[in-house]
Amino acid sequence: MKSWIVSSKWIIATLLLVFPFYSAFADGQTIPLIVAKSSGNAVSYSLSIKILAIMTVLTVLPAVLITTSAFARIIIVLAILRQAIGIPNVPSNQIIIGLSLIMTLFVMAPILQKINDVSVQPYMQGKVDEQKAFESAIGFVKGFMMKQTRKTDLKVFMELSKMKAEANDSYPLLVLMPAFITSELKTAFEIGFLIFLPFLIIDLVISSVLMSMGMMMLSPMVISLPFKILFFVLVDGWSLVIASLVTSFRF
Questions:
Q1: 53 compared with 13, residue with greater pLDDT
Q2: What percentage of the chain exceeds 90 in pLDDT?
Q3: Is the C-alpha dihedral spanning 118, 121, 126, 129 positive or negative?
Q4: Secondary structure (3-state) at 39
Q5: How far apart are the C-alpha atoms of 195 and 77, rounded to whole Å?
Q6: Which sequence spans correspond to the domains of the chain?
């Protein structure tokens, strides 16, 4: 009975969404795609198409956030840090993701400010069209990605794609994005390795002491965990890690 009620609700909701479009087509009307076309190549689209484009962008926003911003490096380093301390569930995934998002906004703030000043505000005031605003915004994002990407990674993906860079070293976004992610993974693992070393030394020292005392049945992780937490708190580890992550990005 409950399943029938739920299915009937979905059917009613679908009919309510489809009915306006059905009535429009039944009356022989069409949804306008283009409102006006200027003398040049610029084309102005209708509000419905703009809303559809915005909704499409929102669906792929998580992928865009990972592949074009500082989010990937930050969350990988924080995950490695949590594993190095030895508490896989503390901080929780929600806290790690939230902290990564906040730090990503902090790192990307200069880029977002430039995009707002050069692309968003002129577009809102009607000074530029959608195409020019989008191209200028993408230019700032590509500039940030280029500064973080290794030349060797760019070369690899350029050879795989069989493309050629332009005269001003402007790489296609299809090549720049995988090269950027590959470089971010390398950098994140390098930082994670340096963070892991002090905790590994503490584990080795505790394990050697327990072995020398003949305490074979006692897990070294149980003894080393309080010492690692104490060491991390005494050196103000969170501030050091966050400051190191922020300064690791080139601008």
A1: 53
A2: 18
A3: positive
A4: coil
A5: 9
A6: 69-247
